[in-house]
Amino acid sequence: MKYELIVIDFDGTLADTYPWFASVINLVADKYQFKRIDDSKADTMRGYGALDIINHQ
How many other CB atoms sit within 10 Å of the CB of residue 25? Predict the structure, then answer.
């Protein structure tokens, strides 16, 4: 099948993917022992990029 157009939604305009992303990051954080995303900071982090979320303190 040939696709003529692919739409990628990195900023959540088309779909709110933050909750899924946060859950995946927390699974990976547990496995590789880095800091989990705290649900109480979710609104603040919603505007962060992926690396900013992973590097949060």
Answer: 19
pLDDT, position 49: 79
Q: Which two tokens stand for residue 34?
A: 């880095």
Residue 52 CA to residue 57 CA, distance in Å, equals 10
The whole-number pLDDT of residue 31 equals 92
End-to-end C-alpha distance for the chain, whole angstroms = 44
Give pLDDT tens digits for 6-34: 777 766 677 777 788 778 888 988 999 88
Residues 6+ apart with CB under 8 A from 26: 36, 37
The radius of gyration computed from the CA coordinates of the chain, to the nearest angstrom, equals: 14
Cα torsion for 18, 22, 28, 30, to the nearest 10°?
A: 180
